[in-house]
Sequence to fold (68 residues):
Amino acid sequence: MTKNMGSIDRVLRVLVAIAVFAAISMDALTGTWAWVLGILSVVFILTSLVSFCPLYTIFGIKTCKTAS
Fold:
């Protein structure tokens, strides 16, 4: 598993996940949307921790800097 996420990408994903969790905890998001966005936020956190996004591999995206 080669890293394909840069630090800015990782930070943005964590910030989005925190915002979603805050909205859920304040009951701004409820029902199906809360579940869907909550699960997506967990995926964002996990992919940020390992610096790897499977969808980036499928689409050929790489946001991390490469050693030259």
